[in-house]
């Protein structure tokens, strides 16, 4: 990475001032979440790991068996087994197999979208804060990201009006993340649909749906419905969250066949044999899926209770984490929580007094409750 783009990157992550004592441990990771998850250099003594929105209950027993069985095939490249899993995903999403691309985590999907659509030759419009991987790659390749701050309302909603207003002939892609990371909020269904429909007539819309499974609103739409109508929309999904397989690195993109072909053309690697079979099993394991959602709901209820007891403001979350206002600089909060053995999410500037905590396990949330009381109580 050039010095310039590294500076841009640090500025985006709000770390250029070097003010945070976290730089040595989490400085690199602060670039974006996927990077954090892959490095995950946790300081010693952490007993409640609540920083990466993982599902600590996974993988399910059924998936573990599938992984073990897949070892027999691990001496082979995975290509021969990919097609069958693509078909399963396509059936689940109600699209045809040529509208699906399996990726090494959804992060690879974000990267190869930036590469294939040559986003670096123009501009990407994205909210801030959000999950920054696609924007990170765009900037690292020399492109420009036009960041639109989230709104100053109770949901910290994406400012769709402003994002739409900024679209020009130079806009290569508009990124939405719904539920958004780190805010956890979702957009009103009709507004989201309308935005994606309108904007996709002018440029590509990317809908990052990593947390879609956690949405409880009945009938809430995935933007896959627009892919089915041949819109210029790409959707990403992952096995890292509700399926509890963040370490397996498998996700997928859903898009029109011509877009999938373009993106596939720059994909050199692909999910490994164990990840493929893990994903295949995960799709069949409805019990674990329901269990994960149930545990997440219990975890969120405890988090809300903790935050309510401290009278801290938070955003109602549709994901597996909660974003809350500490009223203190996040650098100090992270440091003080770490001293209690608790790892919470990284800084999400410009919201420097907000903290993201993942749902984790109930026992971790009890530790969080005690720790937060000491740090902010
Ligand atoms: C919104 C969002 N998208 C994508 C990812 C990347 O997930 P993965 O690469 O594990 O699929 C994450 C990870 O936290 C995320 O929060």
UniProtKB/TrEMBL annotation:
Keywords: Aminotransferase, Pyridoxal phosphate, Transferase. Gene3D superfamilies: Aspartate Aminotransferase, domain 1, Type I PLP-dependent aspartate aminotransferase-like (Major domain). Pfam families: Aminotran_1_2 (PF00155). It comes from the Bacteria. The keyword Transferase applies. One of its GO terms (molecular function) is pyridoxal phosphate binding. CDD domains: AAT_like. Residues 48-367 form the Aminotransferase class I/classII large domain. Its EC number is 2.6.1.9. Belongs to the class-II pyridoxal-phosphate-dependent aminotransferase family. Histidinol-phosphate aminotransferase subfamily. This is Histidinol-phosphate transaminase. It comes from Haliscomenobacter hydrossis (strain ATCC 27775 / DSM 1100 / LMG 10767 / O). The lineage of its organism: Bacteria, Pseudomonadati, Bacteroidota, Saprospiria, Saprospirales.
